[in-house]
Fold each of these.
Amino acid sequence: MSIFSPQPRGPIYQTEAGKTVFGVLAKFANPGALVHGAEAVRDAGYKRWDTHSPFPVHDMEESMGIKGWLLTPLMYIIGGGALTGFLVAGAMQYWITHVDYEMVVQGKPTDAWESFVPVSFELTVLFTAFSTLIGMLALNGLPRHHHPLFTSDAFLKASDDEFFVSIEASDPAFDPEKTRSLLADAGALSIELVEED
Amino acid sequence: MSAINPDKLTADRLAGLAPRAERERPKDPLGDGTLVEDPALDPPLVLGNPSFGDITNMVASYAEKPIGLWWLIVFLTGANLFGLLQVMLIYLITTGVGVWGLNNQVDWAWDITNFVFWIGIGHAGTLISAILCLFKQNWRTAVNRAAEAMTIFAVICAGIFPGVHVGRVWFAWFLFPIPNYNYIWPNFRSPLLWDVFAVSTYATVSALFWYMGMIPDLATFRDRAVKRIREGVANPFKLEPPLWFPAAPMPSLKLPFTADHVRAFIYGFLSLGWRFSGRHWYRYEKAYLILAGISTPLVLSVHSIVSFDFATSQVPGWHTTIFPPYFVAGAVFGGFAMVLFLLIPLRILMRDFSRLVTLRHLELMAKIILVTGTMVGFAYSMEFFIAWYGGNKFELDVFANNRVKPDIFFKDGAPYWWAYWSMIFCNVVTPQVFWFKKMRQNPAVIWVVALFVTIGMWFERFVIIVTSIHRAWLPGEWHMFFPTPVDILTFVGSCGLFLMLFMLFLKFIPVFAMAELKAVLPQASPHYGHSGGHGGGHGDDHGGDSHDAGQSTVIASADADEKELG
């Protein structure tokens, strides 16, 4: 979930043991089946849900209905990083060379911008790279120490060769019976209840 | 003329059709089936038609199972040479740069040669990961992780030399614009300072790029360890019995946790809680593409700026405008040679390595060696041409009398002629064997050429640096440079550091980009299995599928069948 667009929450469900339900985890056979499952969940109007696959499945963003808008904050962060790097480099070099420590080198004016180009470029790239990685992780809510899905033994195979859809119980559209049948109809091989711990 | 009923004709023709037999791949005596000449057939990127799970098992087995005695031998060799490097550096720092063969005239020699050599080797990794990523060259997935690792290790080796060559290394922090009590700042008009920024940015961005690509694979390692712990089959800490005596009783440590607990902790820490989410993948892929996009000008800028160290000076032989592109081409050339030099032996030494790095990968890289080697050869000749055509007497003199004319034949000829001609032979002549298909498809030949190129690229930097300054201007300033044992052993030690780091990489880090490899398998396409049809409700534009290897094979053979039919 994007930290910038919190979704409304539905009621809280509890298991018979009194544990809070995180949601359901449905396994799908292959990337094609996962795409179908994702489309079914998207079309049913769910918001707090996700797909899990060992590699990025082609065009999954369309099947999940997240194409475009999910990226906008990331692009602002990266653009901001690039601009910051450029301005920091320019200001630093101008201030050092022209204001604080004027030193005539090769008889050139101390505020000649041409020699500032390489360092400005490098710092722009450096800041862009950091903002790309950190922005991507932050918007993804990472690093994160634990997640309820990790309690599922089956879910460990998502990093290997299996494909999952998870729907959170806090989704306003979540209904224990309807959500289960939706996933079953969409071709889920198995459906598992995941508890918060 | 009786009118032919077209429907009946079609019906007759259709009635006689039978499905065509599977097209035979041409047999290749050397090959592993990937060296296919038919452009309609896309060779497999991974041999043996593996499943997703096979890829995970293959790559994870390097880290989870014994790797072999050779690893220990190479690692210990590297580690010992790294120890030698430390001894040499301590000796240098405690004594002074006089322990090197430098003199008043030749004040840059082995140190900067080694620096440029290592930083050049570092260029292939980012080129493979960034530029080939932008060009959608799917074969990069098998070599990018190792090449990026190599980049970072080479930059680490490179960073040592400018750090220690300043003489009083405890002042090396003056290289960075850090406020200090002397109220002085570095000179931003100096290419040497640009170099500091270029190399440190390059090292940092390469490491970020490498790490970002590795997050999902580290998460895979984490999940495998966690899975074994939960299933109660976690691997305990124990030393493996030696290969030559498998019955040897090896001690087993009694600890409250197992090796898999350590794996789960470390890989879990490094994978940042990655859970393979579709939303995460979406941002991740775009972020990766942006990193590739900014790394592309970065990789071109780094060696350009390194070349400014020379090109902006007034020294004949250095002061040329061709240096930036010439250095970049040379860096790519030397970097790919090092990639091939390291990967070809691993195809023999490591399980399943040759299934992932196929002969096609080697051939494609051999072609890059040929192209960049020829570009470097062009640069050598163009440099020489301009030295003559530019009419600068001193420049021509450097080329003719300091480099080309052997002093064994010409009076006042070049004492370093052997360095120049070694460079020409290794860098320009040997790669030309790759014009022949048999040569560039033979791993042994490629390995030998890669070795020559690596040597040749070292000589190139030596020629540029030493021959230009050892006899400049007045004959009274003429001095020869001879390396001391400290010079030589420092370089050998840096090779050891590189080797040691690379061995650690092979053992502890996912050697292949598993997630990327899985994504280029034929069955990774959502349309795999239902030939070209768009099922369900996702009938939008899916025209971009043709870069998917297996998918395009299916489409290509379907197209070919249609042609035969019509």
Amino acid sequence: MSATTIPDSSVAHEAPRPRRELRVPHGGWRVIAAKELGDDLLSVRFIVLLIVLGLAAIIPLYSAADQIRQHASSAKDVLPAVFLALFTLGSPDYTFLRVDSFVAIIAPLLGLAFAFDAINGERSEGTLPRLLAQPIYRDDVINGKFAAGLAVIGVVLLAIVGIVSGFGIFRLGITPAPEEILRLVAWILVTFVYVGLWLAFGLLLSVVFRRAATSALIGFGVWFLFTTFGPLILDIAAKAVSPVTGSTVPEQIGQLQTQQFISRLLPGQLYSEVTAVLLNPQNNPQAILPGSLGQVQQAQQQIPTLLAFDQSILLVWPQVVVLVAMTVACFALAYVAFMRQEVRA
Amino acid sequence: MSGVEAADPPETELPVAAPPEDVPGGPEPVIRTRRLTKKYGDLVAVNKLDLAIYPGEVFGLLGQNGAGKTTTILMLLGLSEPTSGEASVMGLDPAWEPREVKRRVGYLPDAVGFYGGLTGRQNLRYTARLNGLRRAEAETAIDEVLEQVGLTSRANDPVEQYSRGMRQRLGIADALVKSPDLLILDEPTTSIDPLGVVEILELLRRLVNDRGLSIMLSSHLLSQVQSVCDRIGIFNAGRMIGIGTVDQLAAQFGDGTAVIEVGLELPTATDVERAASTLLAIPSVETVEAPTDGSGTWRIHVRPVGVEGRVRKDILLAAVSQGLGLTALRPVVPSLDEIYRTAIERPVVKKTGVKRRGSRRPAGERRPE
């Protein structure tokens, strides 16, 4: 028995019958992430997700292709970022039928779909105590699940971008300029962060609520509220808090800025601003509302030019930072809640 | 430690099992707790628990639901933090080194669950990977434990298709796959049919004999605990109120008598009287209970317990010589059920002045004079 195998210093062996199994594994989160990934890839929701996103990528592509041909032939110099237009152009009748806005709508759903039952699902299946009785850190569970969710969604996102790009390159004969590739990569990274935010939110719900159905309902309810009524509510709130009553332009701009600040409390708003700038080099500071009086004047005098990549990044940096901060905060909340929870229900 | 003990309020009136004494030079206990306490707000789930379990031992933790069994187990595994006191498992403190403890201890949770979509083997593989077993050694270990619990033929079926008993056995396999030194089983026989229970208990016995590991199991099913455990601790309202072998517990909590059941066919009332006087005349027989339900089964109380065998022989001889129609003669084993009942009732009957949650004693009886 191990009680009798305590290493005796008088024994000259290099490893004097080591106390058996001192090898406590590290990186339990990787094992958990690998298992979750395997589960996710075979799950129904993943297949549904593939179908929905596949359609989301292909339908807009056809209308985008038409427009790109027209634009490209008529005004070659005004629309040089043709490749990116694959993602931002769509049917003129249905504005949401564009790859970028579809991703903006679907990303939160993805995050929620892969996280809403992460912890409470284990709980209701009775696997959580068994899992936590293995030699892992408790946070390995939540880290592993987060990593697996992000990986699955990442694979799908990359696949979509790949399909759209491939279509553009081979069917339309548009090749991306290096800068366009950079913009695309940056956009994908920000989309990861945005998905991560909703993933972390879903995790939080799955820790807090004991039933998967409850957390799903609340998660999708919040998403619905944010996307449909969020702008409206914040608009009303902004106008109530800071009505534009000033008589001078600087006053008005100050009040507008306050309104804008309030509207940016919505992560969706932040994300769409980032998307607009990153995927459309023509967008200058005007695209996301003027920051100062000087910028307004500048914008009025501007001749339509393309923004350099680093300038675009500079423009959306605050938004990106806030998105990252929101994600981290959400994850931290889920983390703390999980660590403090009793193992037993 | 002594400073802490001195500060405690005088609650010693409660019949709490004496703290275990280490035999000098004896084996080091695999589990040892000292005044382990867990409180949830005002509720004291585990109250100053002192416990020692030794290598190669099957220890039964017996108590009603909510007596603090699971809480104790969670603290031993480092899954729950003790409010005060200390525990040591395999010489490690679970509060500080939970992963080292969990690497060495196999745990079968109450109402164990598995990933239904995965096969039994895949579920075990996941556990093996989490324990850092390499691929080859994991497969060997999985084959071995599946064989031991008798699930080899169903190993590649999804767990969804398993019966409750098979899941429970898979749970034991899951606890064994890391080759633990100690097995902690929380209600291993709950909701399993009687045949399955026998199977599982036999399996546990075999494991102790073959692998030489120690087992701590909790249960509220007394007869099962009795049949498989070397020692038993009776838990009530967070306290260990009795600890020892069944015989020791019987001596501690029993009334000091043994019971013999005698079946007699007695057609007339005079026969009945004759039988009663004959039985009472046998030395060491304390009382004789005539049958009240027409079954013809008499209950004879013998004091002291040790002479029960001799008394049985005397009854047989007397019945033959007196011409009583003897149909049955059997000793009634001191049942853990009775011990348990007396054990958890005793503090209630004897106690004064100590607040006890869930006490069945009406308020008016608080001060018996």
Amino acid sequence: MMATQISKIAVYSENLDMLRELLGKAHQTGAEEVAVIYVGESNPEAGEYGTWGANIVYSVISPKLTEFNPETYTDAITEVISRAKPDLILIGATKQGLELSPRIAERLDLSYASFCVDFELESKSQQVLAKCMIFSGIGVSTYRLHTKPAMLSVAGGVFDAVDLPGNEVILTPVSATIETPKLTIIEQKEKMIAGKRLEDAPVIIDIGQGFIEKDDVTMADELAALLCGQVSCSRPLSSERDWFPEWIGLSGAQLSPDLCFTIGTSGAIQHMIGIRGSKIIVSVNNDEYAGSHLQADYGVVTDLYEFLPSLIKVIKDRSIRIV
Amino acid sequence: MKIVVCIKYSLDVSEIKVDSDSREIRLTGVPLKVGVIDQHVLEAAVKLAELYDGVVHAVTFGPVSAKESFRSALAMGVEDVTLIEDFTDGQGGPAVTAAVLDAAIKKIDGVDLVICGEVSDDGFTYQVPPRLAERLGFPQISFSRDINIEDGILFIHRELDDGSQTVEAPLPALISVTEETNTPRRPTLMEAMKAKQKPVHLWQVDEDLGLSKKDLMEKTGFEIVDTEGIVVNRKQHLLKGDNMEELANNLVDLLIQENVLEGGE
């Protein structure tokens, strides 16, 4: 009989929030085997993965896997894939995931489509059909992936996590030959982690290069505090100016708050895709023709430096809050 | 030191429009050019060549119509450009591109360092540089920021999502750079004039690289069965005026009507 769903899905992400979302989706497809690929120096808390939807954890443990190294991780993960023989591998599209996964796909000759937003088994061909973003989010193409396993990268916030208390999970150790890597990590520094997850905030204040000085961010902070929101930014404010540890966009966080203010941003597609899922978008930009206004419900055409203090005052005076 | 840069003649994605009725993605008339990210690739390569007495060769897999588009790359300091004709008309996917670039780099021979952009302007898959590194058997250092070389060893600082790493790897190696890595130089008029004398070689995958087109096409690994544009259906209601408090009140009223905000009393 023709299968109607993918039977074995394996998931890899070093980012636990993304791992959870990928497991949630894999579980919801009804796959028989939902596997976590774990790579590290000591065994993980497998039980937690069970509550996230996994029923098996393939774990490669080695002192050579203490730090992220694309070469050693490729050796470990390819071994798991060869052993576990999943039909589909989902990869969290973090920088590590994006560096690691194509190398694995090349070694194992896997069909690989990037930035997947949905997938299913095509019953006629028994191959995976995957909808993936193209041109950094302008469109979606449906790919028929020819190999088994096939591979997909998935950005954060695309799929929903599940909570399955008591769901049983088996920990299966996998031994892998890990070659001595050519790349050596001399130093690794952790970044400051944001207090509250942006994904959980009902209101996002998304700021762009219209903000001139770092001190000006206090206006955005004040607005966020009044509405129980979080402030985040476009890529240059994080990567060039280093004002924030992370940014919003295709290469960063993708959020769907109830209300998003996008302030002093230009409206570039690579950025807007990160807030496209918002229920209501308000843009503030003094350029009437800014791309951000075209992608907003309400576009305030004015200078943010004049407008924000008034908006903050009105919200305070009228005791306005988020619903 | 022999450096190869992999660059791409890319669509200007910001010019792509979607027909709001048919959801068709309109590519006709969208300009193509050497990618914005490639300016950073070229800058990184030329700077390293200056510091460590190197030569930079550019390799690109694309349409023959791109031939005249490399003037500025050559003016920045690239020795020559090798354009390998894309017989797939852009449909081959990252696995094919990596296989072709791999063969070209092996033919150039004796390459110490390959530099790519983290992701192309239009393809946006992030797949080609790691695939290429795997094929070449090179260590790969993606998202490189500071790049130094001492006695044939690369020392690189790079940013990941949750932190940063300082790493070392022996040459030959492959690195990718981001738009934050550097500020691309602007060639002088003299450099632009000299660039006119520099060659753009045209190679074919079969004749020049000994690859079979049929085998390459099988590497693609997928077919595209459907494509549609995403139509943004936002209200696009503009609010204008000189009285800031009035503007703010209007906006708040609208957001109350939308049931996302509520008043105090």
Amino acid sequence: MSATVRVKDISKRAGEVLSPVELQDLVPLPPPYDRLEDQPTWKELSASAKQDTACTLDGVVASSLPTPKNAVEEQEYVDKFVDGLRKSFEKNNNWTFLQPLTLSLEYCVKCQTCSDACPIFVGSGGNDIYRPTYRSEVWRRLVAKYVKPGGKFFARFTEGDIDLNWTAITRLYELSYRCTLCRRCAQACPIGIDNGLITHELRKVFSQELGWAPRELHEKGTVLQLEVGSSTGMNPVVVKDNIEFIDEDTSEQTGVTVTSPWDKEGADVLLIHNAGEILSWPENPAAFAIILNAAGIEWTLASNEIGYDGVNYGLFYDDVQLARIALKHVQTAKKLKVKKIVMGECGHQHKAMMTIADRILVGDMRIPRESCLPLLEDIVFSGKIAFDPSKNDFPVTLHDPCNIVRNLGIVEPQRRILRYLCPQFREMAPHGIDNYCCGGGSGFAVMSGNNFADWRVSVAGRIKFKQILEAFGDQPGPEVKKYLCAPCSNCKGQFRDMLQYYGALEKSGITYGGLVELIVNAMVDVKEPFIKWEMH
Amino acid sequence: MSGSILVISYVLVAVFLVGFVVRSVRLATMPVHLRWELAPIPHEKGKGHYGGSYLEELDWWTKPREKSLVAEAKYMLLEIVFLKAVWEHNRRLWWFSFPFHFGLYLLVTAAAVMVIAAIGSVTGVAMATAPSVRMVCTIIAAGGYALGAIGAVGLLVKRAMDPRLRGFTSPAAVWNLVLLLGVFATGLGAVAGTAYFGNVTAYVGALLTANAGAPIPAMTTAHVGLTLLFLAYLPFTKMMHFVAKYFTYHEVRWNDEPMTAGSPMEREVQELLAQPVSWAGPHIHADGKKNWVDLATEEVGK
């Protein structure tokens, strides 16, 4: 492990990597993943990426940045950053999180009680810059010195010393993408300080004031979604074609006729998937269709506006983009006159639409919104569908998506289903609201530029991978096929990359998928196995 | 007691009261924010113990909300009195943080008794305080000073020696602990003398009656004076976290109140949505005049 990194070091030693990630420092994994020499090597940064000042944080690059031509341009960005800090504390500009931000910035006593709750800090072997308090403390000192009256004199006594320069803001920008916003640190804090929230607000300053955000979340995320309807790039015609193909293909494979209704006015349920499911895990929307049809639910998909993609990456970095997308979702439901919106298996969609957007849906914009999990539980235990749990007689464990479980408190419906339908269901330790993030949270799962995917899998997801292996520790070999149930698209994206990175299907027999796939696999009427033991 | 000490005492009490009220009111009157709840929410009846919420219910908006204030109070009691989160997540610090905080709780209790006794004494409402009450109160205070001093010294040592804490410790954090250590040390000195209870109540009584001639021992004057100095300083520090904690828990972590039609919250949000936005990011399209509704509903990217 490199030497202790001080908070004020963020602005010093320009051009040097502040605190490099060393593979030998990372928390060891159980066999057969314990030998460093057997682990995949990280992608080499290109010469141009190395020139980028943003790789001077930890040698990892999450996002590209504009390259200022000279010191004057650098200073302009620095000044804009200070403007952004100031706006964070203005009621008109940031009423959305003003109180939580103020509380977390002003009252942290820096006791480090949160540090060991952070899977990234722990997984890294204790790299100081990944401490939940590190980036918060940088921001706290910057606010004290550059925003508060008299800060140039008083800040060094009240908070501690720091300088603001181009090096500091570029490192801080990168550092705001080394936290998955899982909020495990906030749960541990005795005072209720939320370093995840501070990271969120920091990302907002960069996006809303400087226009800086990772391409995958902004240009290819919210902007693309608002332009064509989906962050996948699918327009309404393409998405309908794809679902039609999925329906036909699934009907052929299962012997059950699958049809997905579109734009049915007055339906009881408007189901909105994360559109990534349609492209990457088509068995998931197919399984939803099989279950809802078999249960006789009056449901529909929507093809207008952005009603067929529940993704809302604004949640991770930008309140305005968040609001724009959330309103489109609601407008779609209003137009179709449905009774409620049901979230597909996507964690951040749950949080964005069910709680974060809740208080901006005033007047006639209000419409009931709920998780698919209580609905699925109701269906499974309603007696409308016959199940044979012996069809799921293989080891199954459950990943708790942070946005559904820790943030929304939806803990038991999915468990009751698994206890009923999966004879070999076992919990991870810890689980439920104490779960560990998959490492792909807050948009990371879709960010893979430069060497970020290597960092995401081997550092951010390290504790989770260890936890999965331990959950299946009684049958570690590849001869026993095991299922990691992850009812969240972004978590599945992370697990796909993680399990492939380590070769976990070949070495340990572990694959992954959603909850609805397990439900359909246990249906008596579905004759062929629905779960395919392959990496997809 | 001299006239100047009396005046200084009044000023310190006034600064404390004004600072405390202003800072607390500032937190209490901040605008409603977007929901940011975090499990476990103990008031969720029948679900709070495992971190569940009403969102686990099918058609949750059609069902009555069931809250358990007892569960919430129990959670807070364990957290406030025993520092449960520190015990569970930072045991090494708890051994000093707990005595430090528990010592303060004892001192607040003793101070409350002595202030009440002083008020009773000057107003003639109450009879002279029973010797047993004086003795118990003195013992509580002595325990508070001792525990507080042990905790303060321990925390100072931890902050100086523990590399996890050292880099995050500001001069103000050290000063806060030193100042409190001074309060505890002079308190121990006052307790070690005679008639601690009577001397402190006499000081409070002198303040209540503006009696600059009251005979107060030097050690008691030093102790109460230092305590008042600490109180005057308190509202401007992070030590106000005992007030902030109410808001971080009740207004953020546990505030899972959904928006309802015609509610005061809805009216407040409508006003907030009408605020002009001036973020400069190019995709925001703000001009300082457009409000949140304008920006969120404009057709972008088409």
